Amino acid sequence: MSEQRWVRLSTEEPTSTVCVLGTEMSLDVCGAAPSGATVFDVWGTSGVNLYIIHNGEVLKIPSCVPKWPLDCKVEVVVTMDQPSAEVNEDKVRISYYKDNGRTPMAKALLHLTCVEISLDADTNRSGTVQRRAKNKKNWTWGPEGKGAILLVNCDRDEPQDEMDNEDKKLQSFVDRRDMSLMILTTRGPEDIFEDHQLVLHVSASDADKVGVFHAQGKRKKLSQHKHVLGHGKSSYVVEPSCDEEEHHFYVEGLAFPDIGFSGLVTFHATLLEATAKALPEAPIFNDTVVFRVAPWIMTPNTLQPITVYVCSIKGNADFVVEISKLSKKAGCRLIICPEAENRGDRWIQDEMEIGYTQAPHKSFPVVFDSPRNRDLDGFPYKAVLGPDFGYVTRKAEGKGNSVSTLDSFGNLEVSPPVTVRGKEYPLGRVIIGSALPMPHGDKMVKVVRDFLYAQEVQSPIELYSAWLLVGHVDEFMCFVPASDRKGFRLLLASPSRCYKLLKEKEQEGYGDAMMFDGLGKDDKEISITTILADKSLRSINEYYQKCIDWNRDLLKEELELEEEDIIDIPQLFTRSSYSPSKAVAYFPDIVNMLVLGKYLGIPKPFGPIIHEQCCLEEEVRRLLEPLGLSCTFIDDYETYHKDLGEVHCGTNVRRKAFSFKWWNMTP
Fold it and tell me: Which residues carry out catalysis (predicted)?
C-alpha cells in the first residue's frame, strides 16, 4: 500500500468517500470527537480492513483491546481489497465514550465505495504492460532498472507528406505499433463517477513532447482512436463505463531528448471529487507512470552493414561501380541517389548520419539530417524517411548556430564499445571535431552538440579537427573491426609513419620512384627523394603530426586505449591553396575509407610503384590484412579527392543496431 489519504469525519451526518484499491485512508478520529470524550472504538463492515497503529504497533480490528485512547498518537487506517458493487456499500463507525462509559456520547459514520484505478505501462521493459506495478513514479537505469519507454514516432508509415507524429490522426494500425501501450483500469460502480471525474494529464511543459490516442469502443477500430493529449493538449477527462473497465491509450514521442528536455515524461491519472458549488473539484487520488523517450543511437564501423548509399554524378560512374562491387561482397543493399535528386552534391556522408531508436516492443533506424543544407538537403526527408525509417534534424538558427564545415556529418563518428577506468560505454562514444579549447574556437553548431549530448547513452568526445581545411574527424581517424583485444583498431593518419616508409624505400634504392605514378598526370609525379628533400613540406607535416598526436592522446585517455589498439597509417598533408593555415591531404586520404565488415573500400593513394606494387598500398595491406580485413583500393582522385573528399565522404552506411539494450546501461 503506497498511497495514504487523510479523511475527516463528522458526528453530525454520515461522511461518504471513495477508497481506491491499493491505498490507505487514515481517519481523523480526534478531529470529530465531541467535547469530553476520552476513548473510542471502531467497527466496520466485512468489506473493510481496519488497523490501529499505537506506539509503533499495528493491530488488526477486531482485537483484544475494546477501546482506544483519544490520542493523536493513535491512528485508524482503512483499506479495502476489492471494488464495491454499489455506491456506499461498506461502512466504518467510530463511537466516542467518556472514560469507561458504556453508552457512546456520539458516533461518526463513514460510507465507503471502493474503486480500482490503476495507470499501467511496460515498466518492466518486457514488451507487455505490467499491472499495478510498484515504483511507477521513478525511472531507473540498468539491468534491474524499472520504467516505461516510448519511441519518437518519427517515421512515415503511409505515403504522405508528414511524419507520423506531426499530425493528430492515427493513420494505420502499423503506425500504432510504433507507440507504447498505456492502460488505465477503472473498476467500481459506475454511479460513483456522477460526483467524481477521472483526468489523464501531463505537465504543460510535456504537452509538446508526447502524443496520446485513446482507443475507444469494444472493437477499437482505427476511426475510434481519439487524439487526447499532446500538440498543446495537457489534460483529458476519461469517461468510465461499466462496459469498459480498461482504457487503452497509445503513446508516441514527439521529440527526442534535447537541451531542456531530459526525455522523461510523467503521466498522471487523477480522481477529482466534487465539492461545494463555485469551488473546483478536490483531488483525492493520483496514480503516476513515468516514460523515458528512447534516444537516437549511432552505430560504429564494427556493427554489421546493411545498406550502402552513394550518389551518381557526372564523371563518377567507375566509382559507383567499385562501390557496388564492394557492397555485393559485403552482402549489402546498394542505394544510388541519382543526379536529379543530388543536383551534383556527392557528399552523402556529410548530409546525414543513420542511427536508430529502440524500445522493448520496437526498434527502427532513424536518419539524422545535418544542418549543412546544400544540394542534397531534401534527400534524407524525401528518400530515406519512410515506413519504419525515422527522421530527425536540427535547424541551425540564431546566435551560436552559424553553419560551417564542422557541421557536416563527416565530422560525426562513434567509437565501438569501450570500458574506461571501470566505466562501461556499451554503445561506444560519439566523436565530433572542434577547434582547440579556446574562447573563440570554431565548434559544431550548438543545436547539434546539445542534441548529441542530450541522448546520454554515447557520451561525446570532442577532438581537435580545425587544423584541417574541411575540419572533419574522418580525415585523420577511422575504426575497423578486429577479432582480438577490444574488438577493433583505431586507425590514425600518420605523417611521421609516411616519412619513415619513404625514407626506407629511398635507402633501399628506390628514391627515384614517383609519387602519383599511374595517375596519368606527368605534371603531378614527384620522386621519393624530392618529397624527402622538401623541408617546407616536412616542417608543416611535423606540425600536422602534433595535431594528430593531440587527438591520439585524447582518444587514448577517453577510450582507454593502449598503443597496441592503434595503427598508424602513412599519410601526408599539405597546406590548402584556399587557406594556407589549414591542411588538406597531399595524396588521397587513406583513413577516409568505407568499412563494410571485413571489407574495406580505401582511397587509392597512387604511391610510388616498387616491384609493380604501390608501396603505400602494400604497407596498408601489411598493417590491416593480418586482422582478417580485405583491402580494396578505389580510385576517387578526380571525382572526390580533388574536391577535398574521399571514399568515406562520398558514401553512407546503415548498420545493424546493437544487441545491447540501451536502458540496461548506466550513463
Answer: 350, 472, 474, 649
- pLDDT given for residue 1 in this prediction: 38
CA 148/CA 249 separation, integer angstroms: 14
**Helix, strand, or coil (residue 342):** helix
Q: 345, 350, 517, 565: which is the annotated catalytic residue?
A: 350
DSSP class per residue in 18-36:
EEETTEEEEEETGGGPPTT
What is the phi/psi pair of residue 497, to 5°?
Answer: -65, -35
Q: What are phi and psi of 209, to 5 degrees?
A: -105, -20
CB atoms within 10 A of CB 22: 18
Query: Mean pLDDT over all residues of the chain?
Result: 94
Helix (H) or strand (E) holding 619: helix 615-624
Q: How far apart are CA 176 and CA 13, in angstroms?
A: 51
At 666, the amino acid letter reads T
Residues 6+ apart with CB under 8 A from 389: 155, 156, 364, 365, 366, 367
| Residue tagged active-site, from 196, 214, 225, 472 | 472
Gyration radius from the chain CA atoms: 34
Secondary structure letter of residue 654 according to DSSP: E
Question: Where does residue 287 rank: exposed (0-12), middle (13-18), buried (19+ CB within 10 A)?
Answer: buried
The reported pTM is 0.93
Q: In this structure, what C-alpha cell is assigned to residue 299?
A: 552505430
Quick one: three-class SS letters along 297-316? ECCCCCCCEEEEEEECCCCC
**Which residues are CB-neighbours of 54 under 8 A, at least 6 positions away?**
68, 73, 74, 75
Distance, in Å, from the CA atom of 56 to the CA atom of 403, rounded to the nearest integer, reads 66
> Does the pLDDT of residue 2 top 60, yes or no?
no
Rounded to an integer, what is the distance from CA 523 to the centroid of its chain?
Answer: 52
Provide the percentage of residues in the chain whose pLDDT is more than 70.
98
User: Which 8-state DSSP code applies to residue 476?
Assistant: T
Say which residue the cell 490522426 belongs to.
169
Contacts of residue 346, defined as CB under 8 A and 6 or more positions apart, other chains included, come to 311, 313, 316, 639, 640, 643, 645, 650
Separation in Å, CA 533 to CA 502, 527, 539, 576, 582: 11, 10, 11, 20, 22
Torsion 165-170-172-176 (CA) sign: positive
Cell reading at 546:
602534433
Higher pLDDT, 134 or 398: 134
* % pLDDT > 90, the chain: 84
What is the rounded CA–CA span in Å between residue 585 and residue 590? Answer: 9
Task: Give bridge partners of residue 335 from the DSSP assignment.
Answer: 309
Q: Which of 258, 474, 568, 636 is catalytic?
A: 474
Q: What are phi and psi of 148, to 5 degrees?
A: -80, 160
- 472 tagged catalytic: yes
Encoded amino acid at 309, one letter: Y
Q: Which residues contact 297 (CB under 8 A, 6 or more apart)?
A: 355, 356, 357, 358, 427, 455, 457, 458, 657, 658, 662
Residues 6+ apart with CB under 8 A from 332: 305, 306, 307, 308, 596, 653
A 10 A CB-CB count for 102 gives 5
d(C-alpha 192, C-alpha 114), whole Å: 10
DSSP string, 152-193: B--S--SSSSS-GGGSSS---HHHHTTSEEEEEEEES-GGGG
- Concerning whether 268 is annotated as a catalytic residue, the answer is no
